[in-house]
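Need the bound structure for fe (ii) ion, inputs here:
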Amino acid sequence: MSLIWQLKKAHAIEIGAYQAYKGHADSTKDDLIKRKIKAIQHDEFVHRMEVGAMLHDLGEKSNVFLDIILWCIGSSISAACHVMGARAAAWGAKIMEIMGSSVYWKLARTATDSGHQELHAKFCEMARTEEEHEKYFAKLFAPQCTCRYLIYLNGNKSREANPFCRAEHRD
Ligand SMILES: [Fe+2]
Ligand SMILES: [Fe+2]
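Answer from helper R.:
Posting the output first, comments after.
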């Protein structure tokens, strides 16, 4: 796949991610987690602007059809976040971030292969940002399993009452 086509795909994916995080943030009750999701959503906005600028510098534009499709998918995920529950939403976000980082790692390779070495470092940086997002959602998703085990050990049936669980969940 050419550099231009991969950039168009990345642009559309960032639109979808931004839309999905709207509902994810709005459906989150915990203020700390809500703020973090909004910060991640802002990162996706910045990525979209950066990819758009790269396309512009290469004399290209984003693919409107692809952008609309991903906007629809992102908006559907956004709406679904209100009914799927926090754990499922974090799991879905983790999967989305894995896809995001792989897109940018692939772009970094393609940039080098196609003679655009100047873009390589930027794509690596973007891929690492997506990996940081993924780690955050993995923490949100996984601790619930860990917490259940700790609660079981403590004989405490209430997850909310477990300070270790709450601290880990909020990290
Ligand atoms: Fe992104
Ligand atoms: Fe991300």
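Comments: The chain has one domain: 3-170. The first helix runs from residue 3 to 26.
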